[in-house]
């Protein structure tokens, strides 16, 4: 075994999870060891740097499983992976000793990132994984005690920007901003240094709010908690519905609306250009829809933010193969099922007794309707689609278009809206979005300034 091989132990994981892990570890320098739950107390050599456990069985309660594993491997990450929703209580699992718990397929992306980061940490530098950091959180000229890199999507490569201990070069930052990027990357194991740096910087700026990087991370984490609460509850009462709604309002208030008015355009830019998962999609769309509503003066931003949080929850109720297949790759049957998700989202909200305004329900139900009537589920056209739904649909499309993809150049906000507009002008049979709304939205974006340093 080479020095840099990371020992990983799996215990009683389900066959479909086994395959997921194997695919994930493909090409990484990992020694994988397996164990049955009945042998949990046996000593394993080499000592694992990471433990992945399957779901509790009838012989072990979640509590016993977590505590037994924690006793054996007190100082390493222990992750629980389940595929059944029933009894999945992330917060309890963590309280009992698991480092984190993942529900597949909903958490697939998050699990992948987490395992990769844990392996990187355990490999003492042999494996490097990166976390996105917003450029706006870094001050040119200051000394950074962490490495930074830029990501080049067209070549799928990270290139070093500055080394630990270097001062951040103002000219380089300007150049990056000009090339439409709003994000640079920091090795995951150096993120603590970034957090200390940004906390110190916010203090000197006399700002109490958190950095944009943290706001984004926390928003995504809050959406994840919200969704697992939504899906794993077996009984729904008026009280549980109220509690979920309260969580939603909290998320909207503390992460989405806070400071949004003064930093309107900057906030829109900050959402762009990251590879995301289901949770960051919901949080991005929520932020964008609220900001669009503010800028356009249509609807209430809070309603749009709430609709954005919940618009795609129906997807999580679809069969696993539909959830994990790209829309472009779906067969006819999968696509038909996929197209039911707006109705399922609404059904789930009702079932969970989450009482939201009719406007919010309509926006969610109609977020895939298109202006020329070619959308779903009802094929409504023009202004039969509610204004809020039209804005939500645009925010949804906007997030999709501005995401970082391998082999694709990044788009500025103005470029994304211009592309939607030009596609419609070039093919009048495909007027998918309200031309008036597009025109107004475009007038709000400074044309191609790249990423500005942001308003106060
Ligand atoms: Fe959707
Ligand atoms: Fe969506």
Record the SSE blueprint.
Layout: E1 6-11, H1 15-25, E2 30-35, E3 50-53, H2 62-72, E4 78-82, H3 90-96, E5 100-103, H4 108-122, E6 130-134, E7 148-152, E8 157-162, H5 170-178, E9 183-187, H6 191-204, H7 212-232, H8 238-257, H9 264-271, H10 278-296, H11 301-310, H12 320-324, H13 332-338, H14 341-351, H15 358-365, H16 387-401, H17 413-426, H18 435-444
Parallel strand pairs: 1-2, 1-3, 3-4, 4-5
Antiparallel strand pairs: 6-9, 7-8
Helix pairs in contact: 2-3, 7-8, 7-10, 8-11, 9-10, 10-11, 10-16, 11-15, 11-16, 15-16, 17-18
One fe (ii) ion binds next to helix 10.
Provide an overview of this structure.
This protein has helices at residues 15-25, 62-72, 90-96, 108-122, 170-178, 191-204, 212-232, 238-257, 264-271, 278-296, 301-310, 320-324, 332-338, 341-351, 358-365, 387-401, 413-426, 435-444, and strands at 6-11, 30-35, 50-53, 78-82, 100-103, 130-134, 148-152, 157-162, 183-187. By secondary structure, the protein is an alpha/beta fold. It has three domains: 6-122, 3-Layer(aba) Sandwich (Rossmann fold); 130-204, no CATH class; 212-444, Hypothetical protein af1432 (Orthogonal Bundle), CATH 1.10.3210.10. A five-stranded parallel beta sheet has the order 2-1-3-4-5, sandwiched between helices. A two-stranded antiparallel sheet has the order 6-9. A two-stranded antiparallel sheet has the order 7-8. α2 links the parallel β3 and β4 (78-82). α7 (212-232) packs across α10, α10 (278-296) packs across α16 (387-401) and α15 crosses α16. It is globular and about 70 Å long. The structure holds fe (ii) ion (FE2) (2 copies). One fe (ii) ion is lined by residues 311-312, 341, 367-368. Residues 281, 285, 311-312, 396 line the site of one fe (ii) ion.
